[in-house]
Design brief:
heterodimer; A: 53 residues; mainly alpha; 75% helix; B: 144 residues; globular; transmembrane (chain B)
Chain lengths: 53, 144
């Protein structure tokens, strides 16, 4: 696997997206940013349906 | 219903959702478990695309494989959010749904289905437990 392909595979790994969204949701909660927290929860809930058709 | 009761209910629902994803409880999810037929996109592309997006996004005709969309919907309902935060959360839900498809496109990986299948349990567990943690933390901080 080339370096570019490896980088693309890592960048598009679903766990990276989940980790970023999870961090955002927890940070928003810690900052009492209610709207951002609910929006992050929404994004996590949408992403949880990955693979669902 | 008093605010504290509603807040407690939201946390209980999120906890049940997380417990379900972790396999601690078995609760069937209410859903219209069937795929959108290909005919929707075959004849009228523009109208079919809108119909496909509506049916997939709202869960009218799709498989709902995770409990977190129900936690989101019930949480928004019980927390009595204003219109803007509710619309933003709904839009973020759609963006999260689209992100999965976008990552698949960007990955250019012919075995992407296998990658997602291998990660699916982790994705559902992490999303459900994070939502529980975030909502519990938000409730605790707002009440304190």
């Amino acid at each position: 696997m080339t370096r570019g392909r490896r980088a693309r595979a890592a960048f598009t790994d679903p766990l990276l997206a989940v980790a970023a969204l999870a961090l955002l949701a927890v940070a928003a909660a810690a900052l009492q940013a209610t709207v951002l927290c609910w929006a992050s929860v929404g994004a996590l809930a949408g992403f949880a349906l990955s693979g669902s058709v | 219903m008093p605010p504290y009761t509603r807040t407690a209910l939201i946390i209980v629902i999120a906890a049940v959702g997380a417990a379900r994803e972790l396999g601690l409880v078995a609760i069937p999810l209410p859903q219209n478990a069937r795929q959108i037929p290909q005919e929707v996109l075959r004849f009228r592309l523009r109208q079919g695309t809108l119909q496909f997006g509506f049916e997939l996004g709202t869960g009218v005709r799709t498989y709902v494989s995770a409990s977190t969309p129900y936690v989101l919907a019930l949480g928004l309902l019980l927390s009595h959010q204003a219109l803007l935060p509710t619309v933003l959360a709904g839009t973020a839900f759609g963006a999260g749904r689209a992100l999965s498809a976008a990552l698949t496109l960007w990955s250019r990986d012919p075995d992407r289905g296998a990658t997602i299948a291998a990660r699916m349990t982790w994705i559902k567990n992490v999303t459900a437990t994070t939502i529980l943690a975030a909502l519990a933390a938000l409730a605790a901080l707002l009440i304190a």
